[in-house]
Design brief:
The chain has 114 residues and is of the alpha+beta class. The chain has one domain: Ribosomal protein S6/Translation elongation factor EF1B (Alpha-Beta Plaits, 2-Layer Sandwich), CATH 3.30.70. 34% of the residues lie in helices and 39% in strands. It is built from 3 helices and 5 strands, in the order H-E-E-E-H-E-E-H. It has helices spanning 10-24, 55-66, 102-113, and strands at 27-33, 37-38, 42-53, 72-82, 87-99. Strands 1, 2, 3, 4 and 5 form a 5-stranded antiparallel beta sheet that branches. Helix 1 packs antiparallel against helix 2. The radius of gyration is 17 Å and the shape is elongated. It starts with 9 loop residues before the first helix and ends with a helix.
Length: 114
Amino acid sequence: MQALPDKRELPSLLTGISKAGSDAGLKFYLFQPAKEVNKEFFNEIPISIKVEGRYHQITDFLFQITKLSRIVNINNVNVKSKKGGKILGMSCRAVTYMFVEKTKTKNKQKRKKK
């Protein structure tokens, strides 16, 4: 339960991901949370990310993500060489999760039926 934030804790988690990239020295081109995907007892929150930096900066960013107290999965990673091979461009999708109480889900379903 500690690894799944609720709505109140979500902005701090998004700030943590952004700060990890900034601390690693990456240049952000895109940091865009997308629409939540509802699951049984949690929601997935995908975040599209595009950054530019050196290899070690990108790996440092990914390492810092693993140190966050919340669950964050990185997928759809695409890395391309830029500017003579010294700089890399990375696009990826970070997926974090948010706990949803079943009572809230049931109440929403009841309202939809009415």
